[in-house]
Amino acid sequence: MSQDHLDARRRQILDGARACFARHGYEGATVRRLEEATSLSRGAIFHHFRDKESLFLALAEDDALRMADVVAEQGLVQVMRDLLDEPEKRTEEHAADWLGTRLEVSRRLRTDPDFRARWAKRSEQLTAATRQRLIRQREAGNLRDDVDVTVLTNFLELVLEGLVSHLAMGLPADDMEPVLDLVEETVRRHRRSS
Question: What SUPFAM superfamilies does the entry give (predicted)?
Fold first, then answer.
């Protein structure tokens, strides 16, 4: 098999698994359900991933990498704005599937020490991308300089987690754009009028 074919198969598995984990949770995403969601056999799935936990971690890491790419180019607030986009505007994945996976990661972080240890190695990518973006913005004179970049990074990550929780509870999202405008305004450097 060519590398392109292997990459396409891996993407097919991740996309199907994302929907399956989002719909059924980690425990409910049985091998049979994963087979149905990916339209592949158990052998094909586990040829690419050692076990279900490795598949879930790869999926969560894939999502974190995608988010880190958006953060590097446009900032963490853009990731939040993307969560609010209408599903028909999405080209890569449905918000509910991403959200479901994100919530499952949060749940497992609370309840599974082994998962927490494995995830800690991967989760730094998003934090690092956010921190680097903020440093570049500060150097360009666009970011407030009276608050440490680490504090601003933590602030933005907490807002993201709050938005994820808000959406997970099924609360309306149509009034969140002004909130995200306020978040952006909070981290911007305020220029004094002359």
Answer: Homeodomain-like, Tetracyclin repressor-like, C-terminal domain
For 186, half-sphere exposure in the C-beta direction (CA atoms, 13 angstrom radius) is 14
- Find out whether 45 and 110 touch, Cβ atoms under 8 Å: no
Instruction: Give residue 167's pLDDT band: very low, low, confident or very high (50, 70, 90).
Output: confident
- Distance, in Å, from the CA atom of 107 to the CA atom of 7, rounded to the nearest integer, reads 29
Q: Which of 62, 64, 50 is nearest to 16 (CA)?
A: 62
Q: What's the DSSP call for residue 88?
A: G
> Which pLDDT does position 193 carry in this prediction?
52
Backbone dihedral region of 121: left (phi > 0), alpha (psi from -120 to 50 degrees) or beta? Answer: alpha
Using an 8 Å Cβ cutoff, are 185 and 137 in contact? no
Burial 112-151 (b: 16+ CB within 10 A, else e): eeebeebbeebbebbbebbbebbeebbeeeebeeeeebee
Residue 115 pLDDT: 84
Specify the higher pLDDT residue, 42 or 98: 42
